[in-house]
Structure formats: structure tokens, C-alpha cells
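R.M. (postdoc): so does anyone remember the format we settled on? I'll just put the C-alpha cells first.
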């Protein structure tokens, strides 16, 4: 086995081109790509479009399935196969090296696993690459949170994932505003957490969300709302459908009004807007993540105290 400074990246499904462009912009060198699997070096920051990331990869040239299994077992831990080729051989190795149990779902705000899943793949008939130093608490980074039938849209899963896995959440009684709230997926989550929610949208909330005593609905275009109309706001949430530059200007208005905590979706059409992402990251206390619940979009978070 040979330890390298190479990194294994497993792209979000359908976003291989986005990850490739992100790596190019970050001056990382792509040594090899097979489908969703990337082998890179000179990686300076964790890519947004990588679902799983494994550092200091080990390369080996096992001559048999038995030797391949020994390589993984010697490295220790739990393993998930990212092979994009040699599927039958990869399956046999995986079954002998580590037979995973059926994927477990975690409860919203429930206990989060701490053990990391290693990442491995066959690059060709002679080459196995593996990393036990990953950031994946789920196999291949695929998040599994037990879903609910109560919210009116699946958008709620974005906040559930962010709050549960990243520890980013407003405390109870926080004064929050949800811009572009209809039909109320995010508003539902915030009210369930005990926040006071001002839901802003020209379209109505789902009736069972609107009747929550913690929810106040304002039928208005979010871009025409003036901060002086709302009173003090502790947290601003936005899942608005708009181009990132327009959202950036809107965020600037609320920052000038004194809001210090933001959770906003940056939605893309066509290619990912890396220029806008960089502008958002220039705001102090900012970071960006692509959640498994996101589509062609990312979640921008800005906290008064910065990222934990």
C-alpha cells in the first residue's frame, strides 16, 4: 500500500460537471474521473459539490479479491464502495470487507452518528484506492433522515438536514421571517421549533400551517417588503425562486436593517453561479453547503457568531 496526498471525491448525483468546474476554479488537479468518483490533488478547500470527501487516499495493487479485502480490513473501519466500474468484482470485495446493515434513518434533531464511513473504489483491474479519513457519517455521504407527512412540501427537508446534521438552528422564541414561504414547508419547521414566524408570500400558506398561533402571514411580494414593516428580526430564511444576484441585493437590505443570521437557498439555472457564491462568501460569518435535499441549488448560511 502507498499512502498519498490525493483526495477521493464522490459527486452529488447529476452534478459531476459542477464539481469539475469547481475544482478547476480552485486550482485542484483532477488525476482521474470515473462517473461520480474523482481522484484529485492540491485540494485547498472542501468542494461544495462533493457528497463525500476522503483525504490522504491509499493506493494498492492487490492481485485478487482476497488481497483487496485484506487491504480494506487492514485500514480498519466501515467501508462504502464508490466504484463506477468493475461492479461485480467491487461487490464481492465489499461484501467480504464490510457487509453494511440496511441504511438507518435518523430522527429530526436526533442523535447524529459519529463514526465515519471509509470510501474506496477499483480504478482498474490492478488498482484499488481507499480513504479511511472521510467526512461521511453515512455511506457515500447519502443523508437519511426519517421524513414526515405533516409539512405541505418537501422543502422542509432542507432545514431538517441543516438543523440536524450541521447544528445550525434558531433557538425557541426567535423572531424569524420566511421570505417566499408558500405553501409553508420552512414556516412549518420553524413553528414546530417554537419560533415566531412571519411568513411572507403573495400565495397563501397551507391551512394547517397558517392556523399555528406562532405563525403570522403577510400576503406581499418579498422583494417589496420594507424591513421597517416587520419589526426586529433575529433570523431571516429564504427559499425564494430568484437569481442569486437579486437575492444578494435583498440580503443586503436586511443586513443594513440589522439582521445578522441568514439561511437562504441560492438557486441556479443552467451552470452553477460560482461568482455569486463567492460574493456571498465574502460576507463575514458565511459558509455554503449543498444539502442532499437540495437540487440544483446550494444553501448559504450566515451567522452572527460565524460557523462553529
Amino acid at each position: 500500500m502507498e499512502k498519498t496526498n490525493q483526495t477521493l471525491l464522490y459527486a452529488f448525483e447529476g452534478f459531476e460537471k459542477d464539481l469539475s468546474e469547481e475544482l478547476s476554479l480552485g486550482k485542484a488537479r483532477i488525476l482521474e474521473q470515473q462517473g461520480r468518483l474523482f481522484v484529485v490533488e492540491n485540494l485547498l478547500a472542501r468542494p461544495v459539490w462533493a457528497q463525500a470527501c476522503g483525504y490522504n487516499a491509499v493506493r494498492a495493487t492487490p492481485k485478487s479479491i482476497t488481497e483487496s479485502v485484506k487491504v480494506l480490513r487492514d485500514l480498519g473501519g466501515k467501508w462504502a464502495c464508490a466504484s463506477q466500474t468493475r461492479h461485480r468484482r467491487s461487490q464481492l470485495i465489499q461484501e467480504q470487507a464490510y457487509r453494511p446493515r440496511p441504511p438507518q434513518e435518523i430522527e429530526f434533531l436526533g442523535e447524529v452518528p459519529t463514526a465515519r464511513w471509509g470510501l474506496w473504489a477499483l480504478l482498474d483491474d490492478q488498482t484499488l484506492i481507499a480513504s479511511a479519513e472521510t467526512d461521511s457519517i453515512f455511506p457515500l455521504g447519502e443523508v437519511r433522515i426519517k421524513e414526515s407527512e405533516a409539512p405541505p412540501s418537501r422543502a422542509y427537508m432542507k432545514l431538517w438536514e441543516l438543523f440536524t446534521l450541521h447544528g445550525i438552528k434558531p433557538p425557541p422564541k426567535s423572531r424569524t421571517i420566511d421570505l417566499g414561504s408558500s405553501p409553508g414547508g420552512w414556516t412549518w419547521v420553524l413553528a414546530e421549533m417554537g419560533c415566531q414566524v412571519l411568513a411572507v408570500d403573495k400565495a397563501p400558506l397551507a391551512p394547517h400551517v397558517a392556523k399555528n398561533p406562532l405563525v403570522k402571514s403577510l400576503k406581499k411580494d418579498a422583494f417589496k417588503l420594507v424591513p421597517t414593516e416587520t419589526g426586529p428580526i433575529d433570523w431571516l430564511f429564504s427559499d425564494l425562486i430568484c437569481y442569486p444576484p437579486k437575492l444578494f441585493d435583498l440580503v443586503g437590505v436586511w443586513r443594513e436593517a440589522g439582521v445578522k443570521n441568514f439561511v437562504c437557498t441560492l438557486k441556479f439555472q443552467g451552470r452553477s453561479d460560482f461568482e455569486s457564491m463567492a460574493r456571498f462568501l465574502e460576507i463575514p460569518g458565511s459558509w455554503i453547503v449543498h444539502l442532499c435535499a437540495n437540487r440544483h441549488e446550494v444553501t448559504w448560511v450566515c451567522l452572527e457568531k460565524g460557523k462553529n
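R.M.: ...and that's the designed sequence above, right after the C-alpha cells. Also worth knowing: Residues 2-141 form a domain with the VC0802-like fold (CATH 3.30.2130). The CA atoms of residues 159 and 200 lie 17 Å apart.
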